[in-house]
């Protein structure tokens, strides 16, 4: 009896090699295959079934790991080297200098408006009394009451939501709503019988004409309220306070613009080569296409949508959720930046809540969770590195390399890794510096109230 030929088996092993990258970068994993031919001894007929199984296993492994390579290739587009950040810093510095030029035509060439402030004094400790502040600059706004006595500052505040329809409404509708919220705050804190100075923080590009007047240059941050651009925002607020019947209790004594206008950096196309097709899609579908391009790569307003678009791209290629996504996941702006923070927390229950909220929990594998984490990390790291590049440019401009910088905003406050990503990037690109980032709690509101205190004291004198 002639023995059948020995079956030929292929042993396939995937060797994963983690490439060590500079800190604050996405770690990439590459896969390579080794194929070894092994001649087995004579096997029973039952063992021949192992041959198609081995082939199937190889095909599955190949598909899975090739898919992983494709995922990493997509995420590689967001990997900004230190050299790229240095290029951004150089371009940003040139725009700073143009924006500060005495030559009006040169200033006009800079997308970054270097706006003067009319705040000419800071608190000296002699301020006493109660002061109000309105801090408007995002999807929520704050009304604050600051009480200053014997060098101590006490604060009471309320946060009011701004629905999307208000952000794209008309001037009277928006400011009447704000005035109504101020009225509620005044009544709640029993200060309706006296007039208190109010500092108005308006976190949008404003051409100030005086300490108590300023024209909105353009809306940013997803706002597009008709009838406000080129209008005096203090006047609009005062008129709304009169209509609401609360003007006797509130005296707007200072307009404060805390906007860092680097959000428009790149609007002239100076670094388009560093933007991705995902950035272009977010910009195209925004309320202000072609504007605030730097902001759209950093801000919490856009970070969640960027992650969603990347995930949809991976799902279309059947690299995520096996290509099966819910109708909710397909909905624009449904993946909140809060979800990015939850995924970046690496806490299992938070990630599961995100998947449930997005209605994809049933089709999600462990591999999908890992890919989702990588997407959120890649976009978060890029945003933090770009923000750090902006901060580093300001540090270089001032020449103060040893400093502490107060940072406000929900992304910095609530994202569990964002501060670390920024801090490590600053160490990379400013090795000669000693820059510390710290969270500023209600900095814009407190600052506006204290400026109101200084302004009201100046009026008395």
UniProtKB/TrEMBL annotation:
GO terms for molecular function: ATP binding; D-glucose binding; fructokinase activity; glucokinase activity. GO terms for biological process: glucose metabolic process; glycolytic process; intracellular glucose homeostasis. Pathway: Carbohydrate metabolism; hexose metabolism; Carbohydrate degradation; glycolysis; D-glyceraldehyde 3-phosphate and glycerone phosphate from D-glucose: step 1/4. Residues 260-454 form the Hexokinase C-terminal domain. Residues 348-375 form a coiled coil. It comes from the Eukaryota. The gene is Gck. GO terms for cellular component: cytosol; mitochondrion. Gene3D superfamilies: 3.30.420.40, 3.40.367.20. PROSITE patterns: HEXOKINASE_1, HEXOKINASE_2. Its EC number is 2.7.1.-. Keywords: ATP-binding, Coiled coil, Glycolysis, Kinase, Nucleotide-binding, Transferase. The keyword Kinase applies. Belongs to the hexokinase family. This is Phosphotransferase. It is an enzyme of class 2 (transferase). It catalyses: a D-hexose + ATP = a D-hexose 6-phosphate + ADP + H(+); D-fructose + ATP = D-fructose 6-phosphate + ADP + H(+); D-glucose + ATP = D-glucose 6-phosphate + ADP + H(+). InterPro entries: ATPase_NBD, Hexokinase, Hexokinase_BS, Hexokinase_C.
